[in-house]
Amino acid sequence: MLQDAAASPFPPVLRRDLAPGSPHPIPHGTTAGTAAGSDRRAESGREGGGAAIVLDRVSKTFSARGNDPAVAALKDISLAIPRGEIYGVIGRSGAGKSTLIRTINGLERPSSGDVIVDGVTINRLDERALRGERRKIGMIFQHFNLLSSRTAFDNVALPLELVGLSRTAIREKVLGLLDLVGLSDKKDRYPVELSGGQKQRVGIARALATDPKVLLSDEATSALDPETTRSILTLLARVNAELGVTIVLITHEMTVIKEICHRVGVIEAGSIIEEGPVSEVFAHPRTATARSFIGSLPGREVPAALAGRLGADPATATQTVLRLTLTGDAASQPLVTRIARELGIDVALLGGQIDSIGSHPFALLYAGVPTGAWTSGAVTAALEAAGVDTEVIGHVA
Ligand SMILES: Nc1ncnc2c1ncn2[C@@H]1O[C@H](COP(=O)(O)OP(=O)(O)OP(=O)(O)O)[C@@H](O)[C@H]1O
What we know:
alpha/beta; Rossmann fold; Alpha-Beta Plaits; six-stranded mixed β-sheet; four-stranded antiparallel β-sheet; binds adenosine-5'-triphosphate; ATP-binding; P-loop_NTPase; MetN_ABC_transporter-like
């Protein structure tokens, strides 16, 4: 643990934020507003304003090569990621996630637009200045990218050797980082002797070595089993909460977003099609893509026994089956029974899950309502008035 300030691998500016149990610097659910980068910059008089990262109308087109046509990988993306948040970007394969994250650390230069990290317009720096700025931006990868010829200690030490730190300072810092990630006892092990989760811990320690303000995570848990994924996400949440490091992570797994992100952006064909606090996007997804990602979470799928009964002709069906999403207070109130009583109808509860996203209660229920009551519009009106997100998933005879 980082209790001894002298032994801390982090400089005072980061240690100031080390207050276990202290409230998150940006409360869960805070609305940052989507970009409008120039407005934010004008407001604060400093590029980037209160945001750690601003993407201001960023597009990236890869030019045509041989028979391959040009690819518009990012299209006019504007985003503002507040300091101290964990921001998830979710999208399917080829949607543009890697390109997006690579523009943030300057590995890709946008074709147009600006990328501002901690007040610095990354895409306007020359190579030398960019190398310096990159030290403030750590990155972890799906396949860890460790050097196989170096021990865990030496992998973490590498970025510090590159900046010319003394051997004593390197040792002190690396040991602190290995302690932070729970790998003190593995410091002399080579990557081949470590599990996937342990390798990712080394990757995280290495990414934190230069005291970055921002940590980018490129599918960092995609190669790990669910239990190890959870432990790595817990570590990232700690790095965020205790060190105040802003984290941007890209993933194709909604579980990752649900576990640790404050905000989420859904990317499709190079555009951010939906964006907001995770609890909001979960409660009221606006796009079919967001709905389908949420539907892919374990326990969210239609129960098998129910799925087998769906498909009756709506004209002759007796029950219409609804997927109800209740959040916040609605999730812990007897809303469904109240509506059933008020409308004088029987409601069959056919499956579901009660859960939470951060501190927000969240319930997903499969309910069968009499088809006659559904077609009359009374059920829709009552559910809408109660703020319940409702989707018809089929009919049963
Ligand atoms: N260097 C490049 N040259 C040409 N096209 C590229 C290049 N890098 C990415 N692309 C294209 O840009 C689009 C977005 O790719 P990107 O790797 O950002 O997607 P992704 O969402 O990260 O996908 P995945 O989850 O499969 O990694 C794809 O059509 C891809 O083929």
